UniProtKB/TrEMBL annotation:
Species whose genome carries this gene: Anaerocolumna cellulosilytica
Protein name as annotated: Uncharacterized protein
Domain of life: Bacteria
Assigned keywords, A-Z: Signal
Record has Ribosomal protein as a keyword: no
Feature: compositional bias, Low complexity: 232-259
Coiled coil (residue ranges): none
SUPFAM superfamilies the UniProt entry points to: Fibronectin type III, PR-1-like
Position of the signal peptide: 1-29
Region (Disordered): 232-260
InterPro entries (UniProt xref): CAP_dom, CAP_sf, FN3_dom, FN3_sf, Ig-like_fold
């Protein structure tokens, strides 16, 4: 009973203290602060910056009005068109998820706050424009290179500067970014033996500080330790400088050269020279010195579709191997193009490969051709000055 009484007294004392020590509000100070906030909002102007543009989204960074409770976003399809309200954010970022890859869009933002129960708006930001982004690769495939590596290749995307590559261990799983390539191929190393991997890619570039990403390609799968999928028609290339060497006699033809498909190569040369002539350039001359290393590379890319040779060295070391002395050289690779017309068209539709073919400094060419047991053609071009 004593404990109950003491507790009751204490409770009454606390209640009594609350009753006789009320909190006093300064109404004038509150009104002054509200007026200052309203003024700051009305005269403010946020900064709206596009940070990412994908095939279906545009993401923005917004800042510039410290007193803001949030920001409202407006969009138009013409700079001087009608800007429609599309949403708001209480943070410094916003993502518009209702855009199309082929569309150009114009955006404005303004800050807002609630003052005395009413919404106060700032001035509009300057207009931010985002242009159409890139499409998706029409082809993608992957090929196992032994037990721990995979080569992924895909078709060129117009206006792409590079490509992001993503990998998953299940077809509908999470695809994690694994690297970027400036050409149309990528080698994924350090994989587990006997494991199936899934890949997809998308084009990338930067325009006026905004990162643009194309639509994701379809998914492709491959199992390490030798399994592969049907190859598609994708070329790859890289020009490089080659150290000057003392010239020697042309080597004895290899087995690759003795089985050389001269008709395929001759037609490729003819088509390439038509393109050069149309571009106002001199024709390339078929070089016997470049033919042997070109055929060697055609056989090698069956094992490793890359500018890195199966032994881990750069592609240009094949010139040293055949005692070819040049100061500038370039290489184009392709597989899956089973006619001369198709392979030249594929190279000409890819900016990097086209640059090699239309390089005014190049005078000579070697064309390698190799057909595997499945009838797939592997083709190479070696250029030199």
């Amino acid at each position: 009973m004593k404990r109950f009484v003491a507790t009751s007294i204490l409770t009454l004392a606390l209640i009594s203290t609350s009753i006789y020590n009320p909190i006093v509000f300064n109404a004038n100070a509150t009104q002054t602060a509200q007026a200052a906030t309203a003024s700051q909002i009305k005269t403010g102007r946020p900064a709206l910056t596009a940070t990412n543009r994908t095939a279906t989204t545009v993401t923005f960074k917004i800042n510039g009005v410290n007193a803001a409770d949030g920001y409202k976003i407006y969009r138009a399809v013409k700079r001087d068109g009608t800007y429609q309200y599309i949403g708001y954010t209480k943070s410094n970022s916003y993502t518009d998820k209702k855009v199309k890859a082929a569309g150009t869009y114009y955006y404005k933002a303004r800050a807002y706050d609630i003052v005395k129960g009413k919404k106060v708006n700032s001035k509009y930001s300057t207009v931010t424009v985002v242009t159409p982004t890139m499409g998706k690769p029409s082809f993608i495939t992957a090929k196992a290179i032994g037990k721990s590596s995979v080569a992924i290749v895909w078709s060129n995307v117009k206006n792409a500067k590079s490509y992001n590559v993503y990998r998953s261990t299940s077809v509908n799983g999470t695809y994690k970014y694994i690297g970027n390539a400036t050409c149309n191929s990528y080698t994924d190393d350090g994989l587990s033996d006997g494991t199936t991997y899934y890949y997809r890619v998308r084009a990338a570039k930067v325009n006026n500080g905004t990162k643009y990403f194309g639509a994701y390609s379809d998914k492709t799968s491959v199992t390490t330790a030798g399994a592969e999928v049907t190859p598609t028609q994708i070329p790859t290339q890289t020009p490089t400088k080659v150290p000057t060497q003392t010239p020697t006699k042309t080597p004895t033809p290899t087995s690759s050269e003795q089985t050389y498909d001269s008709s395929f190569a001759s037609q490729v040369l003819k088509l390439v020279n038509i393109e050069r002539k149309n571009g106002g350039l001199s024709e390339l001359t078929m070089s016997k010195a470049l033919t042997a290393p070109a055929n060697k590379r055609a056989e090698e890319i069956v094992q490793s579709f890359s500018h890195t040779r199966p032994n881990g060295t750069a592609w240009s070391t094949v010139l040293n191997e055949f005692n070819v002395s040049v100061t500038t050289a370039g290489e184009n690779l392709a597989y899956g193009y089973n006619t001369p017309e198709a392979v030249v068209e594929g190279w000409m539709n890819s900016p990097g490969h086209r640059a090699n073919i239309m390089n005014a400094k190049f005078r000579n060419i070697g064309i390698g051709v190799y057909k595997d047991s499945n009838g797939t053609v592997y083709a190479t071009q070696l250029f030199s000055n």
